[in-house]
Amino acid sequence: MTELCELSAIEARRRIGTKDISPVELLESCIDRIEAVNGTVNAVVAWDYERARIEAKQAEGDVMSGADIGPLHGLPIGIKDLEVTEGITTTWGSLLYKDNVPDEDQRAVAEIRYAGGIVFAKTNTPEFGAGANTTNRVYGATGNPFDPVLTCGGSSGGSAVALATGMVPLASGSDYGGSLRIPAGFCGVVGFRPSPGVVPSETRAVGLNPYSVLGPMGRTVADAALMLGIIADNDPRDPFSREFDPALLDPLPDVDLSMLRVAVSTDLGVAPVDNGIRETFKNRVDSFRHIFANAEDRDPGFDEDLHESFEIIRATNFVAQHRKRLETQRDLLGPNVIDNTERGMKYSAADVAWANVEQTRYYRNFLALMGEVDILISPTNGISPFPHEQLYMDEINGEKMPTYMRWLAPCYALTMATPAACSVPCGVDHKGMPFGLQISGPNGSDRFVLAVAHALERVLAGNPETARPVPDLNALRTS
């Protein structure tokens, strides 16, 4: 029997609106699930149940009295601990802020509350989002819901695990080199990286950096799309902010997949991919390739210089954010923040200029491919989850990785093209762990990418080998 906390966000909201379920009942179901399994996976790291119960009771009263209610009315929401939340501890995963309780929400969180969402839980993240893992010196590591000794990915790992285990129907995340997509792929949920500016952020230290974006996570594409419509907006404090598209609030349209031209790429031409993942990806794509008008094996015009250009741009952004912290509070910082900041301080202005020119070239090469096809499909991750005691994967197919970031290349290579990209579950890999597909389109194609992902999700759900995997909750309860 499906428990209320396991309902999709769309279905839970519908049943709240029709008075079939109460926001109070839904919240208590989510709290019960957190109490049952969070001790094993450590996904939720801060909460305010008292305020949430008051808000749920008020939400129930609004429904019963016939008051106007918002699109997220009565839905309990998990917020990544990189986002500022009024009255709930916000640490950014850092010892520097372990006791920080903000007195106001940042814009995206405020929008969620305004739409009726009940913000009641914070989800774990690495320190300042650095590293595609989810561990920090404040709260410790978050385990993969399919095997808690393995990584859930990151940096939105707590959100992904909370969704996979039914702790929340919706959760927020953010993405630079794959922080929404990587944990979604490792945990069997959906993570959507919007185009820069669709979800404006007034908190970025470097406003002119378009690579870091806020985005939604859900158990289905439709759920992620629901949340995107709420947190998307126009905000002049973000220089990449764009006019809000009201269509983002509408249900996703049907897309006829048989009319689409699709590019399929195993490694984007540059990403290290484990041989087992290569075989899994080929088998999965072969199972549905026929549904498209044309599905051609093509790479998006990336080359080996992409790795260095990505690392330069990313590291110089770390210098902007963390140089003063490194100089005055180094002992309170973790290795990923220190490594990235020190790396950035070694680059010259000429290095940064070169990296920006290269990024522009990759962006235009990607656009050229997108002028010939409708969508690109690739693996979300190039490896299977590894023990979370390792901060990164240092070897793939017997080859040592030159930096701790290289294994993230299936995601960060696409970041260089600033696309709209959605990770959707596609069964399990050769090791029995969740496997994700990445569906990408050009900057500005957010609604189309979501609609294609939604249509493909329905196809995948019809095949036991490609349907969304579900963790063994009993094992998590008894571990």
Q: Describe it for me?
A:
- The chain is of the alpha+beta class.
- The protein has one domain (4-478): Amidase signature (AS) enzymes, CATH 3.90.1300.10.
- It has 14 helices and 17 strands.
- The chain has helices at 9-17, 23-41, 49-65, 107-114, 157-164, 181-187, 221-231, 275-288, 305-329, 335-345, 349-370, 409-415, 446-461, 473-478; strands at residues 44-47, 76-80, 118-123, 135-136, 140-141, 143-144, 147-151, 170-175, 190-193, 213-218, 261-264, 294-297, 375-379, 395-396, 399-400, 420-428, 434-441.
- Helix 2 (23-41) runs antiparallel to helix 3 (49-65), helix 5 packs parallel to helix 6 (181-187) and helix 9 (305-329) crosses helix 11.
- It is globular, with a radius of gyration of 21 Å.
Keywords, separated by commas or semicolons:
single chain; 479 residues; alpha+beta; Amidase signature (AS) enzymes; eleven-stranded mixed beta sheet; two-stranded antiparallel ribbon; 16% strand
- In the CATH scheme, what's the topology name? Amidase signature (AS) enzymes
Uncertain stretches: none
What is the structural class?
Answer: alpha+beta
Major β-sheet, in short?
A: 11 strands, mixed
Number of strands: 17
Order of neighbouring strands in the sheet with most strands: 1-3-2-8-10-9-16-17-13-11-12
Task: State the gist of this model.
The chain has 479 residues and is of the alpha+beta class.
Write the layout of secondary structure elements.
Blueprint: H1 9-17, H2 23-41, E1 44-47, H3 49-65, E2 76-80, H4 107-114, E3 118-123, E4 135-136, E5 140-141, E6 143-144, E7 147-151, H5 157-164, E8 170-175, H6 181-187, E9 190-193, E10 213-218, H7 221-231, E11 261-264, H8 275-288, E12 294-297, H9 305-329, H10 335-345, H11 349-370, E13 375-379, E14 395-396, E15 399-400, H12 409-415, E16 420-428, E17 434-441, H13 446-461, H14 473-478
Parallel strand pairs: 2-3, 2-8, 11-12, 11-13
Antiparallel strand pairs: 1-3, 4-5, 6-7, 8-10, 9-10, 9-16, 13-17, 14-15, 16-17
